[in-house]
Design brief:
By secondary structure, the protein is of the alpha/beta class. Helices cover 35% and strands 17% of the residues. It has 20 helices and 24 strands. The chain has a seven-stranded mixed sheet with strand order 3-4-5-6-7-8-10, covered by helices on one side. A hairpin with a 4-residue loop joins strand 18 and strand 19.
Length: 626
Amino acid sequence: MIAVPPYKQILKEDGTVVWDMESYEWLLNGEDFESIHPSLQRQAVLNMAYGLYEVVPDRIYQVRGYDLANISFIKGDRGWIVFDPLTAKETARAALDFINDQLGERPVTAVVISHSHADHFGGIRGVVDEADVRSGKVPVIAPVGFMDHAVSENVYAGNAMNRRLFYQYGVLLSRSPFGHVDQSIGKNTAAGTTGLIPPSRIISKPIEQITIDGIEMEFQNTPGTEAPAEMNTWFPQFKTFWAAENITGTIHNIYTLRGALIRDPLEWSKKINEALFRYGSKADVMFASHSWPRWGNARIQEVMRAQRDAYAHLNNNVLHHANKGVTINEIHNVYTLPESLKQQWAAHSYHGSEEHNSRAVINRYLGYWDANPTTLTPLSPSDSAPLYVEMMGGAAPILDKAKALLKAGQYLLATEILDKLVYAQPNNNTAKDLLADAFEQIGYQKESPSVRNSFLAAALELRSGIPSGSSPKTSGPDMIKAMSTQLWLDFLGIRLDPDQTAGKAFRINLNTPDNGERFAVELSNDALTSIQGYSGNAPDLTITVERDQLERLMTGSADFDQLVQEGVMQLDGSRAVADNLRSMLVQFTPDFEILPGTTPAGSNQGVNANPAQPLRQVEPADTAGG
């Protein structure tokens, strides 16, 4: 520890609080809370560390506790090489200002982005000007596939992911022993402005060496691990290994509860093993984009082996049980870490959980079905629940039994029957309150904050309805501008209202001459399809617009009619086709009901059916935390 800042809050230019360590200071009073798992409470206390740290004397520093991730600074011959500039412009700028205040002002000579999750690139505009990147003055370095995955990973289901994020990250929970206490890999996600500057140099080889500002760096690409595009870094001059988010103070998510593609724990284990054999035998220091560094070769190898083995064991042991007939609906009650790994804190599933990660492994290899035909095409809960309630004799005996189960500490059994009653009777407030009681008690016992938050957020909604509130960040236009035109067109197809498409058909050619792209877009059989590099024969409409003008439409800074009136968009053919397409689109909103009886008055269940700008792209989901 070099210095603690004199402030505990970081503000936007308009005075809005984007980061607030002060709201968690109750954790430092030395009290043990029965409503927090003791191991999670210890993790939460460790994540209260807030300030500037020296990792390698006079060479490598970290500012920790300014965001969900750490921002790291490597001291070059002339300036700072910044690794992973956090989620938000405001927190990244505050970190850069703080290290310059403490150690002397130095220019940023390069930025390295380890992977494609927002808490590792979103604050880039706080440490570098885009003009300096475009001119080549300050290189921005990222792994192969970074831009594709940074934008596309959470577009198609982005609205649903943002809604579910309210559960995983407890966005609207109070910061208290009965609410949000930590996020395991960091305290919380900054609520600032997220940006994106396209990298100027891509690391494309499995192993690639470069030298910048006198610092030698060897990058190890690790696609398909914690992120679909990710890389570790070896600093031979300092015998120091940067583990990105592949090795932190916790076992991570194989399946992340906000929603994402299932990850590959075996590949993750193999990439850690490669790093262990290539760098681990000679490393004196290991640091990462979350948690804290490790010093001493023996300790470094111990942590690397523990995490390598934890991911390998998860993959192999779950499949061992699956091959003996254990199903996705049973595995979370069967799988457990070996005792040797339970004694390794770095192998505990703080960010992930053994329960949802073990189910994810089976889902990855065998899918969601447990092979029981009863569950192949199940009734929706709201359809099946009334039968269960009728067979159990109605609401009164269910409530009596649930109260007895709660009193006996049988919280999961209580949720089994109360969940049925709430689905059958969404307005039964007594049932909803009891289910909320059970959810809270389960949440209090969980070591993983993601699981804890999910139960507590559900309890909050059962009692109070879906709360209004902002998402944990404010995106600038960068993420949408970085979307490919093909990705935007694909998402238009997802947004089509099926009630508006029956019996309709059309063909549109879309040309963006400044970048030479062309697309054939067709509505047929209620499906909107597009193909890049082709123009359809006999189109009903041809639209010609430069890509930078199309971005105005995508970001909402201009609407369709405005572009036509300005003469920057040319229409050749039937204007009615474009108007027809616009009338078919809905705009998704993250206010749909997850639990019955929680819908606020006036909610349209996740849809704004008449958006003011129907062609505007909804921002992608927040990928912070992985």
